[in-house]
Design goal:
- 2 copies of one chain form a homodimer.
- Chain A has 423 residues and is an alpha/beta fold.
- The first copy, chain A, folds into 2 domains: 234 residues, Aldehyde Dehydrogenase, Chain A, domain 1 (3-Layer(aba) Sandwich), CATH 3.40.605.10; 149 residues, 3-Layer(aba) Sandwich (Aldehyde Dehydrogenase, Chain A, domain 2), CATH 3.40.309.
- Chain A has 14 helices and 16 strands.
- In chain A, α2 runs antiparallel to α5 and α10 crosses α11.
């Protein structure tokens, strides 16, 4: 059998398993998750060996350090993954939740009940912890899943999925619930994109090239995200210490992720006071500051080699590095215009003591998450209390922001009567 | 300017208008709806004239009576449309609704707030009341809309949209909020399907050919439905009078719509008692009954010319006419299997006095709406209290069942802090 046929069979098997999963009691699904967590703590040997082999090959291929770091598994990281799985297990079960209920005038009782979507597929980057995150969120929400991880982590994922399959079997779940694509042939992505009868939701993760390709060519529902051009606007009424602390956190705490700061906008009336404070903090961390001419003037000629003029394409750019674009604006309106033009609809923040300005910003900025006096870094499933996340959607349809268990569900209408007919 | 460019300009204008609409207070949007309703009652002349011209041409083209009836506007129907618009206006405003709110341990206040999707587009059949339904639901939910109605109703829709534009203008809304495609060139559908930057949701209505074409080729989110292969299962513990009454209603009350009954499944233990009762009622209405051999045997050789053997393709067929397929099954499981194989995921019913059987059916049937002891005809936005509906989704993603104002929304996450940073 060729791999395309095999992939389609995996999809059909996942679809069949999803019908069983949808009916399992909460306890059984939680039991499976607990088994997975326990195995992640107690059966680390084969996974660490497999990961060491993946790591060695990736290193030999000259892959960069940040990538290698995401690929690497350690005993501690496996324990952290177990914690994440248990955190998902501890969530309220979304399956069967009554979203709303009402009685019609004719006496019909109507209930809107949450149900699983069916089969969640993901094509994702070479980070093995994503494997257990997606499996945990899918099983918790009563869904089967179909996983295709990055080729550099093939052995790690194969070992992880073997562990997951054993854990599922011990909990009485069919191993068909978790399907892993162990063939890294690129053309299988095209096959997957046609499997609309087998896949109810596809979440592409990783590079924007892959994400755009999937969004444009998939025949099934897709949720995309992953690209965040995030602004923090320091308003006229900002507290400059708070502004510096939040900008520093948003840029420096983890610069390689989508909710990290890319551009600072500062109101001209406070730029003279706030910008040097902010720049001092960013300097400490070695952040390169790409400034418009007004910011450059304020920071002065002696502000160091890390302070350089911004180029036009620095606005609207996701840096994923210790680089920030800085611009002075004359008003909240100018900040809103800039964000509307250059933002990616991910995460945007305003720093201000002016409640009216904050509310205007929160209302008018069209993004998955909008922040007042805090860091855009909080756009994250774990931070929001979702346990973890399948991704962060910048789409508006179906789900926006972190994708947790609820976002992997649909609903059905249940109507109970005693003979009512329509007149 | 050619029509493709014009269409794209309409989309861009709608998109710009949607940003304004999203910020309008509830009262202003309701005022616009009240203006539309009032005009529908008081400015009927031009619309009735336009509709008479449409009707005359359609009649001359030999179009069938059911189609002509849907196309026809009368003074009474315009008054009914006004009532529908006012019913939507009276709904709670979905825009700004706080879907959930919680405070994180670090003190951040998180709010999930409902917002409009942006621009709702629809390609729909030659029924002018759909124009005012979609306009009302879109405006109520803070969305702009882009409408392409059936070519047989071009003059009617042009007159209706002129009325709507006047009503919007008097309420201070830009007429760009409602865009009407007055060019019936078929190639414009292809243009529309590419307008993912201008259209946030596309709802195709009408024939399954169009719906499938749109679902497969659209680059933006689509909600599809409109095809309903609906079963009513008469269980072993059914009340036969109730069963007959519900089956009759589901089949006969309006046979040309998607939530009408197509197939009756009857448990073998009660078929001898229930089937004749059901068949007598259906006979009254002249329903053709296409029976499997067991049903045929029960109904007997003298049951009349309307009782004929079912052909294999009668199972899973949407009749949209006074025709019903009838089958005897041996168990609830067989009924569930039949529905899983042949259902379209629209509306399915069980008639039984057995609570356990009912719960199994309601839980296990995978459809937008599942019914116990009542008619599938209730799957309807107005019946559910949504005022009206843009369509009925048989998709699972984003929205399922009747599409009212809430289903035309997305949400954003709003996070308020006082300097919190991520550790």
């Amino acid at each position: 059998m060729n791999s395309a046929d095999h992939l389609r069979q995996q999809g059909a098997a996942a679809q069949a398993a999803s019908a069983l999963l949808a009916r399992l009691p909460t306890e059984t699904r939680n039991h499976a998750l607990e088994n997975i967590a326990h195995s992640l703590e107690t059966e680390q040997g084969p996974i660490l060996d497999a990961n060491a082999a993946d790591y060695r090959d990736a290193q030999a291929d000259g892959i960069n350090d940040a990538f290698l770091d995401r690929l690497l598994l350690t005993s501690e990281r496996l324990n952290d993954m177990a914690v994440d799985v248990r955190r998902v297990a501890a969530l309220q079960d979304p399956v069967g939740e009554v979203i709303e209920a009402f009685t019609l005038e004719n006496g019909l009782d109507v209930e809107k009940r949450r149900i699983p979507l069916g089969v969640i597929a993901s094509i994702y980057e070479s980070r093995p912890n994503v494997t257990t995150d997606i499996v945990a969120l899918a099983l918790k929400s009563g869904n089967a899943c179909l996983l295709r991880g990055g080729k550099e982590t093939l052995r790690s994922n194969t070992a992880l999925v073997a562990l997951i399959h054993r854990a599922l079997g011990e909990a009485g779940l069919t191993t068909d619930s978790v399907q892993f694509v162990d063939d890294t042939d690129r053309t299988l992505v095209d096959v997957m994109l046609q499997m609309k009868d087998e896949i109810n939701l596809l979440v592409p993760r990783g590079g924007s090239g892959l994400i755009n390709f999937v969004a444009e060519n998939a025949t099934m529902p897709v949720l995309t995200g992953g690209v965040g051009v995030c602004h923090t606007y320091v308003d006229r009424d900002a507290d400059s210490e708070m502004a510096a602390s939040i900008v520093y956190n948003a840029k420096v705490q983890r610069p390689t992720v989508c909710n990290a700061l890319d551009t600072v906008l500062v109101h001209s009336e406070v730029a003279g006071r706030c910008l040097p404070t902010i720049a001092n903090r960013l300097h400490e961390a070695g952040v390169e500051m790409r400034c418009d001419h007004r910011a450059l003037t304020i920071l002065g000629p002696d502000s160091g080699p890390n302070t350089i003029p911004a180029q036009p394409d620095d606005w609207g750019r996701e840096f994923l590095a210790l680089i920030a674009a800085i611009k002075v604006v004359d008003s909240l309106d100018d900040a809103l215009d800039h964000i509307q033009t250059y933002g990616s609809g991910h995460s945007e923040a305003i720093i201000t003591q002016d409640g009216d300005a904050a509310e205007r910003f929160l209302n008018e900025v069209d993004a998955a998450a909008v922040y007042h006096n805090t860091s855009t870094r909080f756009t994250d499933g774990a931070q929001f209390g979702f346990g973890s996340e399948v991704g962060i959607s910048t789409d508006k349809f179906h789900a926006r922001g972190p994708l947790g268990v609820r976002e992997l569900t649909s609903y059905k209408w249940i109507v109970r009567g005693n003979g009512q007919i329509r007149g």
